[in-house]
Design brief:
By secondary structure, the protein is an alpha/beta fold. The chain has one domain: Divalent-metal-dependent TIM barrel enzymes (TIM Barrel, Alpha-Beta Barrel). The chain is built from ten helices and 14 strands. A hairpin with a 6-residue loop joins strand 13 and strand 14. Helix 1 runs parallel beside helix 2. The radius of gyration is 19 Å and the shape is globular. The model has no long low-confidence stretch (mean pLDDT 96). The protein binds fe (iii) ion (2 copies) and zinc ion.
């Protein structure tokens, strides 16, 4: 099982990410090269990157399974503001270079939101931008994430994802990242994953799947909301998520948790704790933990985060 979570990148860059992943008992991870909500980025530090690679090697984390996530404010779908559209393209071109420096193979990208323009034009804008970005890419594959369909988000149907892939020239550098919360919210039945996978294979091709975001959802199927829940604490549920994680045909695909932090208010201060160490343990043991929240609070009270 290749499993990890979203981790931070911080001032030690990739090295900090690896250490955080190891503290969760993970054997892979996903990071943003800075804050997810902005595009301020520092140059990659070679020294800490080298240390990160060493630490990964010592702990059997395969670089090929590590995932970068593009910031969610870049939008390749809308070109009404040409400057913003061009900025998104040049930012992602640079992001690919940063990933190539760190030998990271995959960048997950939200396809974009049409905001005020026709969907078909928006899809063509994305395809055009992807081709520009990938022109200079050599070893980094962009993974289009399946979206919940919140607002004017694109990529919430398999047909839209297929359309984008069909229009990308470098097919070897394009793939898909499934997100179980988003798929549920988009209207796909995560309780019958084999059926879903079969239609994915017919429409797109199962070989395009390179990453899975494993999240439960706070909302019912088709809600178009995109609110993640902890594993087993949402509408998809523990059993269905475990089946997805252990699906034989996706065995070698990295599974990444992006579940919400746990709040703790019965203190003088409000704190939040990462759930990943406990969710990963629960997944490995294949047994639902009904005390997940209190276990997490108890643990981090005794072992405060630095
Ligand atoms: Fe995402
Ligand atoms: Fe996701
Ligand atoms: Zn989401």
């Amino acid at each position: 099982m290749i499993i990890g979570s979203h981790v931070s990148f911080g001032k030690n860059g990739l090295l900090g990410s690896v250490k955080e992943a190891l503290s969760y008992g993970a054997n892979t991870f996903m990071f943003y090269t800075g804050a997810p909500q902005n595009t301020l980025r520092k140059p990659i530090d070679n020294e800490t990157t080298l240390k990160a690679w060493q630490l990964m090697q010592e702990n059997n984390i395969d670089l090929n399974n590590v995932i970068c996530h593009a910031p969610y404010i870049v939008n390749l779908a809308n070109n009404l503001d040409e400057r913003k559209y061009d900025f998104s393209i040049s930012f992602l071109t640079e992001e690919i270079k940063r990933c190539e420096e760190m030998k990271i193979k995959y960048i997950v990208l939200h396809p974009g939101s049409s905001v005020g323009i026709a969907k078909d034009i928006a899809l063509d804008n994305i395809a055009l931008a992807l081709n520009k970005i990938l022109k200079n890419a050599k070893t980094v594959t962009i993974l289009l994430e399946t979206m919940a369909g919140k607002g004017t988000e694109l990529g919430c149907t398999l047909e839209e994802i297929k359309y984008l892939i069909d229009h990308v020239d470098k097919k070897e550098l394009i793939g898909v990242c499934l997100d179980t919360c988003h798929l549920n919210d988009a209207g796909y039945d995560m309780h019958n994953f084999d059926e879903f996978l079969q239609s994915f294979d017919e429409i797109i091709g199962i070989n395009y799947i390179k990453c899975i975001h494993v999240n439960d959802s706070k909302n019912i199927k088709g809600a178009h909301k995109d609110r993640h829940a902890n594993i087993g604490y949402g509408e998809v549920g523990f059993d269905s998520l475990i089946k997805i994680i252990n699906n034989e045909s996706l065995k070698n695909i990295p599974k990444i948790l992006e579940t919400p932090y746990i709040g703790d208010t019965d203190d003088d201060k409000t704190r939040i704790y990462p759930p990943y160490k406990f969710e990963i343990a629960m997944i490995k043991e294949d047994k639902f933990n009904p005390n997940l929240m209190s276990d997490i609070r108890d643990y981090y009270k005794l072992n405060p985060l630095k």
